[in-house]
Write a structure and sequence with these properties.
- With 180 residues, this protein is α+β, with helices and mostly antiparallel strands.
- Helices cover 37% and strands 27% of the residues.
- It has a six-stranded mixed β-sheet with strand order 1-2-3-4-6-5, sandwiched between helices.
- Strand 5 and strand 6 form a beta hairpin.
Length: 180
C-alpha cells in the first residue's frame, strides 16, 4: 500500500463510495467507507480519467469463502454453498460506486462499464462471481445483471434492504465468447 498508484486508487475508491452512497437509504457506518471492517485480503477496481485524475467507477472484490458465505447467507436461508468451490474459484464483488453526475461518466458510461467488466473477466476468468443487487421497483438492476448472463440464486436482507443474490461462472462466460 505504499506506492503512489495504490494510494491514488484507494483515495479514488473512497471518494466514489462516499459520493455514491451519500443519498442512499442503506444504513452505513464509517467502516463502510474506509474498509476497516474487512478482515481479509481484497482487491479494488477503479476506472478513472487518467488525464484529469477523476474517479469514475469502482468496486472491491474478495475470495474469502467464510466472508462470502456470511454475506450472502443467514441462519434461515442458504443462497450459496461456498464449500462446493475450491479456494480461488469464487469471489464476491461489492460496493459498486459511480461518479454518475460527472460529465465524463455521463458521456462514456458504456465504455467505463466495458473497461470494468473486462478487468473483472480477465483477472478472474477461472472463477465464479457472486453479487448482491438491491431489490427495487421493476428490478432494473437485476434485469441488467440477468442480461449479462448472471443467474438469480436467492435473496437476502442486507443492511436493512432486500437484495437479490446473483451468480455467474466466468469460465463459461469467457470461453463461450460472451461479451460482458
Amino acid at each position: 500500500m505504499c506506492n503512489k498508484i495504490t494510494e491514488n486508487s484507494v483515495s479514488h475508491e473512497a471518494f466514489l463510495r462516499r459520493l455514491a452512497y451519500k443519498n442512499t437509504p442503506i444504513k452505513t457506518e464509517e467502516s463502510f467507507f474506509d474498509d476497516s471492517d474487512m478482515i481479509s485480503t481484497y482487491y479494488l477496481i477503479v476506472v478513472y480519467d487518467k488525464i484529469q485524475n477523476i474517479p469514475l467507477l469502482s468496486a472491491r472484490y474478495f475470495y474469502d469463502q467464510t466472508l462470502i458465505s456470511k454475506t450472502v447467507n443467514n441462519e434461515t436461508v442458504e443462497n450459496l454453498n461456498t464449500n462446493q468451490y475450491k479456494e480461488g474459484e469464487l469471489f464476491l464483488a461489492d460496493r459498486l460506486s459511480g461518479n454518475t453526475e460527472h460529465p465524463v461518466y455521463i458521456r462514456n458510461r458504456n465504455y467505463i462499464f466495458s473497461l470494468f467488466y473486462t478487468e473483472i473477466l480477465t483477472k478472474n476468468r477461472n472463477s465464479s462471481l457472486v453479487l448482491m443487487a438491491r431489490k427495487e421497483p421493476e428490478d432494473k438492476l437485476l434485469k441488467k445483471y440477468l442480461r449479462l448472463g448472471f443467474q438469480t440464486i436467492g435473496s437476502i436482507m442486507h443492511n436493512e434492504k432486500d437484495h437479490w443474490i446473483v451468480l455467474m461462472d466466468l469460465k463459461k462466460a469467457y470461453y463461450s465468447g460472451s461479451k460482458t
